[in-house]
């Protein structure tokens, strides 16, 4: 049983998939909202915020990519799990770059879907969770922002998630696979090139000298580590 009774918004216009998702979610004691169009989904979110959003990209009124942007303009913390028949790598990368948290290609099993939802819920910013601080770098989880020397840094959703992953385990070495799974999802566990690109962008924003990192160190052959002091 899910003790939190988390609220899941399903944005899907296929009736059969709606029925399937509602059955799977309610069996696990999640509260399930449903929307068949993008506009309906935005109205639902205004009336009742969701803990996780399941989004099909092929909606009748708004393209799913545009809807991700609209949702992110209202909330940059609610996890968005894309469920789509579009399986091209370019589509997946574009959805993640726009702010989606994970991408699940149809058809999928209920076991995999529930595992992805549990992962999304674990990475939700927790109300009242204290800010993390390493030197002059601060991660304020309650306000979902990062500060360097007291000044806010503009991070993309993926950069924020990457930094948050490190702040969960300061001083500990995280393997490349662990980081990729946390940031992108388990299906991208071998996509080290995407992580290197994301890491380079984050370092340019937080490191005084990206070539000689002060906050996030590379552990050659293993992964990365956030300084603990």
Tell me about this structure.
The modification 4-aspartylphosphate is found at residue 56. This is DNA-binding response regulator. Helix content is 40%, strand content 21%. By secondary structure, it is of the alpha/beta class. It has two domains: 7-122, 3-Layer(aba) Sandwich (Rossmann fold), CATH 3.40.50; 132-226, Winged helix-like DNA-binding domain superfamily/Winged helix DNA-binding domain (Arc Repressor Mutant, subunit A, Orthogonal Bundle). Strands 2-1-3-4-5 form a five-stranded parallel sheet, with helices on both faces. Strands 6-7-8-9 form a four-stranded antiparallel sheet, covered by helices on one side. A three-stranded antiparallel sheet has the order 10-12-11.
Radius of gyration: 18 Å
Shape: elongated
- How far do the termini sit from each other? 39 Å
Residue share in β-strands: 15-25%
User: How many separate domains?
Assistant: 2
What is the β-strand count? 12
Biggest pleated-sheet summary: 5 strands, parallel
Overall pLDDT metric: 86
Helix content: 25-40%
Organism: Faecalibaculum rodentium
GO molecular function: phosphorelay response regulator activity; transcription cis-regulatory region binding
Modified residues (4-aspartylphosphate): 56
Domain Response regulatory: 7-121
């Amino acid at each position: 049983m899910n003790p939190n009774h988390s609220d899941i918004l399903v944005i899907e216009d296929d009736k059969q998939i709606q029925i399937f998702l509602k059955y799977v979610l309610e069996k696990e004691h999640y509260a399930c909202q449903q929307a068949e169009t993008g506009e309906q989904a935005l109205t639902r979110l205004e009336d009742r915020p969701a803990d996780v959003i399941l989004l099909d990209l092929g909606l009748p009124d708004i393209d799913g990519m545009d809807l991700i942007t609209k949702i992110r303009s209202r909330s940059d913390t609610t996890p968005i799990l894309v469920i789509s028949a579009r399986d091209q790598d370019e589509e997946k990368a574009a959805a993640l770059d726009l702010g989606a948290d994970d991408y699940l290609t149809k058809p999928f099993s209920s076991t995999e879907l529930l595992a992805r939802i549990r992962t999304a819920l674990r990475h939700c910013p927790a109300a009242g969770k204290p800010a993390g601080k390493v030197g002059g770098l601060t991660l304020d989880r309650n306000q979902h922002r990062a500060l360097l020397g007291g000044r806010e840094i503009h991070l993309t959703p993926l950069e924020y998630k990457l930094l948050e992953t490190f702040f969960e385990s300061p001083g500990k070495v995280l393997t490349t696979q662990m980081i990729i799974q946390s940031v992108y999802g388990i299906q991208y566990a071998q996509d080290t090139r995407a992580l290197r690109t994301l890491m380079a962008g984050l370092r340019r924003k937080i490191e005084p000298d990206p070539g000689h990192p002060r906050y996030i160190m590379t552990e050659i052959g293993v992964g990365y580590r956030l300084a603990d002091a």
